[in-house]
Design a protein that fits this description.
It contains 12 helices and 13 strands. The chain is α/β, with parallel strands linked by helices. Among the domains are: 89 residues, Rossmann fold (3-Layer(aba) Sandwich), CATH 3.40.50.10860; 134 residues, NAD(P)-binding Rossmann-like Domain (Rossmann fold, 3-Layer(aba) Sandwich), CATH 3.40.50. The strands form 4 sheets. Strands 3-13-10-9-7-8 form a 6-stranded parallel β-sheet. Helix 3 runs parallel beside helix 12, helix 8 crosses helix 9 and helix 8 crosses helix 12. The longest helix has 23 residues. It is globular and about 55 Å long. The relative contact order is 0.15.
Length: 363
């Protein structure tokens, strides 16, 4: 980003600066050297990571004191996602019968993170069930950035590939922004390309793809008959993957949106004003029952593995929300697992199908 100093701008426009106001000068020799405006070295301010308070005790202490029975409607993301995936499979079969082609999805995976491997395996299985071709290219944790970019460029030029997904997060030595910028806009089925995000942010413009998890959250609200227009919505977390795009989508549906992050003062008080709470921090049991207004709708995007020898994989997943407490206050809530996760995969299939429809001019 280019930051022009105020004195340079003054010389270019040929105006005298009188305190903070512009006045026309009759002589160029009388131009003031004072600053036009006082601003920090970067108007974008500091790029600080959101580091939430330690939550190890929250895992142990959640839901120990309240014996009130649960009253919330459980929003079954798996059931809704299965319905969507069934419709997608029907359209894929119709495309194959009509034009002899099916959608294709390529996945780039770097490293062997347990959660990423699980996500990719689930996505490949979902593609198989829907009749969508899938291809996975996996790189070691210490791979070179150029290798990832080369694979991405190859998929960009492959006409049988209609969607490309770079599984995030990437190892720290890789420049995530630079890699995603290589991705061809019309194959960005994750919706993270700057142009897709920019068009999502601007009224009157439409992105080619909406990011999958936020899109799934909105689908859950709509299909559960939750009114969004005119409601107060609080989004907890501001990541590019979920927090930012879901706040933009909620605004497009005419909610009044507040974003809470790690630097927010009194987040509980702000959350208690919300009719709709969407939380995506990855901090287990961050949102307690006393964070919620009675009757609020809660969408929990967070997933956090907790060791549990009684489970098949040796661990179980919990969300950002203390489910047992929240379900006694909220009117509707998504479980973890079985809430937002299945919808994310369904939206990925939907975006890939839409991309193939555009490529083959298929309706």
């Amino acid at each position: 980003m280019i930051v022009r100093r105020a004195s340079v701008i003054t010389n270019i426009i040929g105006h005298r600066v009188n305190n903070s106001c512009f006045t026309t000068s009759s002589s160029s020799s009388s131009i003031s050297s004072g600053p036009i405006l006082k601003f920090p070295s970067s108007l974008l301010s500091l790029d600080l990571p959101d580091i939430w308070p330690p939550s190890s005790q929250a895992i142990k202490n959640c839901c120990t004191a309240n014996d009130q029975p649960s009253s919330a409607l459980v929003i079954d993301g798996k059931l809704i996602a299965d319905e969507i995936r069934f419709r997608i499979a029907e359209q894929v079969r119709r495309m194959k019968d009509s034009v002899g082609k099916v959608p294709g999805l390529a996945v780039i995976l770097v490293g062997d993170r347990r959660d990423s491997l699980t996500y990719v395996r689930n996505k490949v299985k979902a593609c198989e069930d829907a009749g969508i071709n899938s291809l996975v290219t996996q790189f070691p944790q210490d791979c070179k950035q150029d290798d990832v970019i080369h694979a991405l460029s190859t998929f960009n030029e492959d006409p049988s590939i209609h969607g490309i997904l770079v599984q995030l997060p990437l190892p720290q030595h890789l420049d995530e922004g630079k890699i995603l910028n290589v991705l061809k806009l019309e194959k960005d089925v994750d919706g993270f390309h700057p142009l897709n995000m920019g068009n999502l942010a601007m009224r009157g413009r439409e992105p080619l793809f909406i990011p999958c998890t936020p899109k799934g959250c909105i689908e859950l609200l709509i299909r559960s008959s939750v009114e969004i227009m005119g409601k107060n919505a609080v989004v907890i977390g501001r990541s590019n993957i979920v927090g930012l795009p879901i706040s933009l989508l909620l605004q497009r549906h005419h909610a009044t949106v507040t974003i809470v992050h790690a630097f927010t003062k009194n987040p509980e008080q702000i959350a208690r004003e919300a009719d709709i709470v969407v939380t995506a921090t990855g901090v287990p049991n961050l949102v307690r029952g006393n964070w919620l207004k009675p009757g609020a709708v809660v969408i929990d995007v967070g997933t956090f593995p907790v060791e549990d020898p009684s489970c098949e994989n040796g661990y179980r997943l919990i969300g950002d929300v203390c489910y047992e407490e929240a379900s006694k206050v909220a009117s509707a809530i998504t479980p973890v697992p079985g809430g937002v996760g299945p919808m994310t995969i369904a939206m990925l299939l939907s975006n890939t199908l839409d991309s193939a429809k555009r490529a083959y001019d298929f309706t």
